Amino acid sequence: MTNTLVMILAGGASRELPVLTSHRSKAALPYGGRYRVIDFCLSNCVNSGMYRVGILAQYNPASLIAHIGNGMPWDLNRRKGGVMILQPYMGKHDPTWFRGTADALWQHIQVIQDIDCEHVVLLSADQVYKMNYTQLVAYHASSGAAVTVAVKPSSGLAPGRYGGVDVDEDGVIRGFTEKPERDTFNFYSLGIYVFRKDVLVERLSVACEGRHDVVFDVLMPLVKELRARAFVFDGYWADVGWLEEYYGSSMLLVKQPHLLDLNDPSWRIFTNMGIRPPSLIGRGAEIESSLIANGCYVEGKVTRSILFPGVTVKSGARVEDSIVFSDASVASGATVRCAIVDKMARIGRDAFVGFGNPTCSNSLYPDVVSSGVSVIGKRTAVPDGIRIGRNCLIGRELPSEAIPSRDIVCGETILGEETWQKISL
Amino acid sequence: MAEDLAIILAGGAGKRLLLLSERRAKPAVPFGGMYRIIDFALSNCVNSGVGHVFVLSQYLPRSLWRHLNFGKPWDLDRLKAEMMILHPYVGSSESKWYEGNADAVYQNLHFIRERSPEKVLILGGDHIYKMDYRPLLDFHRKKGADLTVAVKRVRPEETTKFGTCLLDEDKRIIEFEEKADRPKSNLASMGIYVFDTEVLADCLIRDARNANSTHDFGRDIVPWTIEDRRVCGYEFNGYWQDVGTISTYFESNMDLLRPEPPIDLDDRDWPILTNIEDLPPARLLKLGRASESMICDGCIINGTAESSIISPNVVIEEGAVVRNSIIFAGCIISRGAKINLSIVDKHVSVGPNVKIGSGVDFRPNEEHPSILASGVTVIGRGSHIPGGSVIGRNCLVQTRGGADGPLYLESGQTLV
Hints:
The structure holds 2 protein chains of 2 kinds.
Chain A: E1 5-9, E2 30-31, E3 35-36, H1 38-47, E4 52-56, H2 62-68, E5 82-86, H3 101-107, H4 109-114, E6 119-124, E7 127-129, H5 133-143, E8 147-153, E9 164-167, E10 173-177, E11 187-196, H6 197-207, H7 214-224, E12 228-232, E13 237-239, H8 243-255, E14 279-281, E15 286-288, E16 290-292, E17 297-298, E18 301-303, E19 306-307, E20 312-313, E21 318-320, E22 323-324, E23 329-330, E24 335-337, E25 339-341, E26 346-347, E27 352-353, E28 374-376, E29 381-382, E30 387-388, E31 393-394, E32 413-414, H9 419-424
Parallel strand pairs in A: 1-4, 1-6, 4-5, 8-12, 14-17, 15-18, 16-19, 17-20, 18-21, 19-22, 20-23, 21-24, 22-25, 23-26, 24-27, 25-28, 26-29, 27-30, 28-31, 31-32
Antiparallel strand pairs in A: 2-3, 6-11, 7-13, 8-11, 9-10, 9-11
Helix pairs in contact in A: 3-6
Chain B: E1 5-9, E2 30-31, E3 35-36, H1 38-47, E4 52-56, H2 62-68, E5 82-86, H3 101-107, H4 109-115, E6 119-124, E7 127-129, H5 133-142, E8 147-153, E9 163-167, E10 173-178, E11 187-196, H6 197-209, H7 217-228, E12 231-235, E13 240-242, H8 246-255, E14 282-284, E15 289-291, E16 293-295, E17 300-301, E18 304-306, E19 309-310, E20 315-316, E21 321-323, E22 326-327, E23 332-333, E24 338-340, E25 342-344, E26 349-350, E27 355-356, E28 377-379, E29 384-385, E30 390-391, E31 396-397, E32 408-409, E33 414-415
Parallel strand pairs in B: 1-4, 1-6, 4-5, 8-12, 14-17, 15-18, 16-19, 17-20, 18-21, 19-22, 20-23, 21-24, 22-25, 23-26, 24-27, 25-28, 26-29, 27-30, 28-31, 30-32, 31-33
Antiparallel strand pairs in B: 2-3, 6-11, 7-13, 8-11, 9-10
Helix pairs in contact in B: 3-6
């Protein structure tokens, strides 16, 4: 089992997390008060005793690379194995970016071939869950399947986002449809796979002619050949690659912490974090049902919220049902409600973010930003006294002059120079 | 000529910290929630660009060793930096325990000479302060001193606790008194010395040959050196606190809670680094309340913390109230417990409805009346305080294993 190779897909651009992923990959998205999303699968790897990990990265990887470093926080700086970040590179043949998940693996096939292992675990970096991959691999190995897919019963899940899986009584996958329109399948795929290495290598060599996609070009043909099995996972699992899911899953951490217990000493989530002093809670502070990371300074009222390291909440300020990333500050008298405030953003005095009720979806991303959550981009300064409604997107690096000093109504978007990215998508 | 070398004296027992140093060296005593006392001297070294650090250990070193982790947390495990722990060892010719801090350095003189530093900085491992050692080293060089002692003005009533000195206009020390009854000056030695390496070697060799010496830098080396060498005093004006007693330890922790703390732990230009495990953010539950307090990662608070320092992984259950206290890592304060003016060492479990630090009787501790008189009660590491216990003020409590019924301790009592 220690020889099992784990490949983590951390590559793609994401329009489902607007503003938050304009400068970082989904894998490096902050989560849970001091983590990044990728910490969960990395911690799962080491907690499962799997110490050979490759991370396939392509989109805006700087913050991911800085976060992973030499892998030390996860005990992945090892003489044998350890973590490797695998980026597209220029070889002797036509250099291309990763054209898809299968292509990403194919470009680094040498890594897979060189490692003496029977199975390759393939993961997505944008999910939060605790899973012992040893059980998954053991099930896979004993069943003799070419591929095993971790699945969950498909009750109450938004169709069109995940792969629908039909599983028979023996655990064999009979049908697989990527992002089905209707929820007619009994399970859905978690995007967690374990392949027999020989099969994976062989199929990848064929896939490079197809859509360059692991699901279409490798998994689906194996399903047709009835060589794929399902492994039912009943723990908590969330794909936080969508704004709504990201927000919802974060809020569960404060409302139902037992679902994804961060304090569990038997399955710790490791991260790479500089040293911050203890948080200072000032006179008159009121904090309820919240997570407060180190280095915060709280004088105001914080309810059902997550404060990352170094957040300042001044007296008379209120933070409710919100997620505030590292070193952001909320000035006195300001209110932040149902919002995600990115790193180092500053909410001015008496400003109100998340004002009113959600009456319409976001103008630019109606399918993604519709549940009432507003986002304030990294290092943006929200001017004193203004009100920003629900489902609003305020881009990153905006000085207060760049934001109109009027009410910004529900669904409005102010992206500044970031709009070009939207156009290029 | 190699870089300057710092030697941190971390071998002492720190008896006046009572139970807190019962099972660990004083520099390893927790401070400010997530730090250990030695972190301040170590971080000062790193922030001052002094990358070669020796740590001398002797007394109960395991907790210290584990904390230091080869210098990794302070970035001292690099090619051009090092941290070496120098512990007494059996040699081929003579083997003995360190008989004082000067003897400890003397026994390791060959290691110091191997590094051939120009100057050696001798530091205590038990002071809370932020100090850039570069101006001190520059001062030493500029004054052409053989030895420079960092000094600080202290309140007149404190002078008897320190070595004090008189300076001439050239900042040369003309008189030095160690813990005198009526000192002539209020310039106290901070226990921080800069030596030219060869001067240090001469002094230590001379000291080792002197049968009457107690082998202490403050008591022996400095007074003798003043007589025939050029010894200067470098005045430091910042916050500096010797946390040698329970009351100074308690006060300097509480200083951190002041609106303008005298020592800013969040100073990005002068970070205080420590070795701490990765823990989830602190969690305040529905009934959790905190004010004027420090809370650390890993805490779960559903009770009340007021004017207190709550270290990592502390659990405060519903209805429990912690006031004016320092709770070390991993303690569990069960429901309904009330803790006031206390220091609770690591992994203590306080049962339901326990009262610690209760009552208006402030009589000093019977066994240590001179040390434990400010009202602070100390609960020793790993103690279990059974539900319903009532413990007064100035008490010392260390229990092992499970006591059955509740404990009743009046103020000033000791249960060890």
